[in-house]
Amino acid sequence: MHENSYETEDGIPVLSQQQLQHLLERLSLPSSPLDLTYLTQLQWAYLCHSVFHNLYLLAGYAGCAAPLTAKDSLNSILANQGGPCHVQTVGFLSLLRGLGFRAYLIAASINSPDDHLVIRVDLANHSYLCDVGNGHPYCRPFPLDREDEQAWMGWRFRTKPEGQKLCLQRWLGEAQQCRWKTVYWADLTPRHFDDFTDALRHHHTQIGYGPFLQNLRAVRIFPHGLFCIRQGFYERYSMVGMVQRPIRNFAAAKRLLQTQFGLAQAPIVQALAVYQANQVKPWATVLPHPEFPRILVTVSSTDRLDSLQTLGESLLKRDQGEALVLLVVENSVVEANRQANIARLQNLREQGLKINYLDEGCYGKPIADSRRIQTRWVTHQIAQGQQYDIVWMLDDDLRLTNLSVDKSGQLQETDDVDQIQALSTLWQEHPEISLAIGGVTGDPPIRPDAVLRTQLFDLLANLEWFAALAPQATYSSPPQQAIFALPDYYYDHSESSKTHLFTPFRWLKRPESGQSVREQFLAYLQAALGISSGKSITRPLLLRPDFVPYSSVLRGGNAAFFDIDVFVAHTYPSVTIDLISSRRSDMLGSALLQQTYPAGIYAVNVPLRHDRQPADKSAGFQGGQLDSERLWESLNSEMLGVVLSRCILPSADEKVDDSSMLKAKLSERSLCLQNNIKMAGYYLQHIQQQIKTDTTTWWHSDEEIMQALETLLTELETLLRLYQEPSDSNQSSLLKRLQSYVTNPRLIEQLSLGLADIRTQPALWLKEMQSILRSKEI
Fold first, then answer.
1. Is residue 224 part of a domain?
2. How confident is the model at residue 777 (pLDDT cuts 50, 70, 90)?
């Protein structure tokens, strides 16, 4: 970026053509006729792209270089570092003049004479005041020849001209005795930048001259809201109103400024040190009322028997009088299951759990539809005045417990994590987190084909492992901490690593199944029947005490929203092709949210237990039996969701057109799946051969174990046959059908249209939610 070459007669730097173009591109605005409409667009875009803050001012008090000159102020804006009043004003004034507006620097008085910089713009026969340096959401310029009032997201302002001055006032609301407070008086006479030298020096050196050496201020405005740091609190103003969260300490403020405010390059450490030494109020140390965050748990029921009861009971176990409410959206297809759910929920109510039950009369909806129903219901409640601090959206097959491995290598269920308390702590101590993705322990929430290869590889390795052990000896799991740390160690389709595909995982001892090698081997064979349902028998997800939150949009069925406007703004995109709806709407929605709405999305250490249910429909079962067409639907639903997600995720190549990207992703996924199924078949053949040829192993004379082996192999043969051989209903195998399907031009065309539609959904969804919040109707 070239430095500005010269200044105007009032000391304001002139932008080069390159700098002007750079700023316009950042604001996403082209050149346009110099009228009020364009001026309004410029002011709002500038406010939304340049963060107001006093970090350089605070750091300057400690001796760090602060942008005090007009030239340094403009360079700060060109570097996208934002700043206080004079920095913001110089940048915007240079932009206006570069475009050809007749714009002048003028003064306003807030606490002391001429302690604030604003801009006068003359258009035709009218003049306007533009203020981009006060941290307020002024949606449009204020006219200088008449009274004016504007309101936005709970903020209200009015102006009244008096001679060569303009009075700006802000409405403080009913809590402040319904009064208007004067923000400043502006003098419309043009000034030179040097006229503000004393005021700027006082702001940077005199505690009490202005608020900025005793208060930490940062304001980020975006098209649908505003968030700011004030008086030790983090406030978000949006369509759901104002929500306040505490900033507990130096570290929390630093994380918040670096992430949500995008000020990682600013002198945060030096500024916060000055603030802590001179602050008017300390960091927020008193819990906001009520003392415990108000948590709403939302879930959509399915036909998984007893899951809802198990989840509810685990919530009751953790609910110790906190403000916790459960919303259940009925989605079970079977009438008997719906009636059973009503009875179970009544039982939970009698035990003290607060429950809302919603039955819209339409069942078996895709996950995306059920998520949208939950969001709409909550949004209606907010419109009626209901308040929540946390909305925790869960799948119904989760419960508030976890799996871990003890010191002796045994797999155990543990209650070491109090999930509700953990969420409360994160909400209070991590204001940078808007959406907390909790994850699971136990079975990964993925399809059976995504674990089949590694599970059969482990089965082959464990047969050899158990064969070398004495059946009556006490079984001990070998140390495996290192391999459980491998990335995606449970996932056959991983793109991050392949090491885990060739690393055997041994059976983790289950203490409830006995102590001997024989008892543990039998328990393993019986558990392995769940492989066809997607259970990760040898590679369960485990609790990780050393887990540190990190930025991620890989969302699943355990997501807690700490900023309620983010919950409302989160959409759940999907496409339906040949009556099959794509999965992964949670991940798609989070990826789009990160791109279109200011939200801190993090993976956190608040996992829940997830167990794959036997003969689950999502795994390709129908009526308790593996079914070719059901497996095809499940396979396609997942594949479509994965492919669409990988076209939206930040790692996607923006230079490639949608059609080409979809073709590539479909081909990659199809080849990956075919290769993994082929390898699974290869391992199964070796297992069968080993059992037939090596008759000297100790279990060959054990009738119970041989029966368990035969049952397991029959189940696995059936599953692989469905993938690799034609079925009664189709002359092509699933893999052959898939190979033909992913190269079908019609599919590419439909997915391209679907992807284009998905990109429009966040804006359309926001409009719908805003309409609900304005309607005040249920």
1. yes
2. very low
